[in-house]
Design goal:
Blueprint: E1 5-9, H1 14-26, H2 33-53, E2 60-68, E3 72-79, H3 103-110, E4 113-119, E5 122-130, H4 132-135
Antiparallel strand pairs: 1-2, 2-3, 3-5, 4-5
């Protein structure tokens, strides 16, 4: 497992998240390209939502980690922002002209598990994607 990334947004941003993901991929060259693409897209969407919606004018402070296991890829993002009131119930994608509401639905379609909990003063967001070769 690659060392977790300490985030402080600003000055960190999605470029920092992308750089961290690339370090993880470099340490896991055996990963299938489609697994990487789906997981990375979901994690970037999650990070973007947390940065945008948890800011509250004070920025976002948190920790991002990714673990690549033999059968799955797991990611977690913990932030110390106010508790989230997001509903992670399965949802349909909004219409093509909707200006918001795609993030959670998009993440849900890219990964096998997406969870949120409030734990010890932190928001803890977790995603998990089974590796494709393990599904065969």
């Amino acid at each position: 497992m690659t060392e977790p990334l300490a985030l402080r947004c600003p000055p960190d941003d999605l470029d920092t998240v992308h750089d961290y993901i690339q370090r993880v991929w470099a340490a896991s060259p055996e990963l299938d390209a489609m697994d990487r693409l789906k997981f990375e897209t979901a994690l970037i969407e999650l990070a973007a939502n947390v940065i945008q919606h948890s800011n509250g004018g004070n920025g976002v402070v948190g920790t991002l980690s990714i673990a690549v296991d033999a059968d799955r890829i797991r990611g977690s993002l913990a932030d110390v922002s106010a508790p989230s009131e997001v509903d992670l119930a399965d949802r349909d994608m909004p219409g093509e002209f909707a200006e918001s509401g795609r993030g959670i639905a998009f993440i849900q379609r890219l990964v096998d598990a997406f969870h949120y909990e409030r734990r010890q003063g932190e928001n803890l967001w977790m995603i998990e994607k089974m590796r494709e070769r393990e599904r065969s």
